[in-house]
Amino acid sequence: MIRGTFANIRLRNHLAPDTEGGFTRDFTRADTPVTTIYETAESYERIHRSNLIGMGVLPLQFPDGQNAETLGLSGEETFTINGLADTEATAHELRVAATDPQGQTRTFAAIVRIDTPAEAGYYRHGGILPYVLRQLLEPVGVN
Hints:
Strand content: 15-25%
Low-confidence stretches: none
Shape: globular
């Protein structure tokens, strides 16, 4: 669903007038006010982070001073995330291994941005829809 949304050539973002497709406005750069969503996806507002969790996507944050460029990430890597299972903690640091198409792996720290217990519950269930469906399917207690 996420890829489909950003890949939709008819997507119209009111922050990037006169554009169609995956474009948005980058408020952090005066030289390029309109750019692709991919180029600005490094930082999300709270509601976008929360929406990602609602779709079952794990939001990770680079530690201060790091980003995809400083780590040499191209976006073609396969990622393995270690340190997420069996934890009840919301925001915490974990290790990510990024393997490029040539088989070279680099490991770096990332901060899990699941900030509330409710978000943790949604993420554990794969998003809000599976969470709600499981709640509906739970047997009702008999008195």
